[in-house]
Please model this.
Amino acid sequence: MRHSAAHLMAAALCRLYPGIQLDIGPATETGFYYDVEMPHKLSPEDFPVIEAEMARLAKADLPFERQEVSRAEAEAQLRAAGQTRFKLERLADIPDGQPITLYRCGAFLDLCRGPHLPSTGAIRAFKLMSVAGSYYRGDEKNPMLQRLSGVVRESKEALAAYLHQLEEAQKRDHRKLG
Model:
């Protein structure tokens, strides 16, 4: 669910900000993120618009379609999608003989190992939490990207409970209390 939510968020970002360049979007222990390069500097004020587009795509119940392709086909599809800045280098990282997979979700296409949920409709409750800087491949000599992070849960009630738990933990943060 977390990895599929990262793709849902990236799809929303691509719709809202044409020309965006995507790097990676993995699941994390508590949620998901995607590293992106774009002229617009994201801020928490952008979150409601992005979440609304994510909700629209989730409601559309778009299937996550897996394609196993050749390296040449992957490169051609990534170029056609306008994802050349980082994705082609990530494609080159895949060793010869390893399967190369793309996932499509509506108009959104990504180089990805997967797996994913059957469709976006299974992603029911999410919230964007933060945006921060992140160097491409963790190297300060590389471009600074924006890392947009969020959380996802199986229901609105579970999300509300998780957010409440985070709020309570922040109230008891020893760094603030001390």
The longest helix spans residues 156-171.
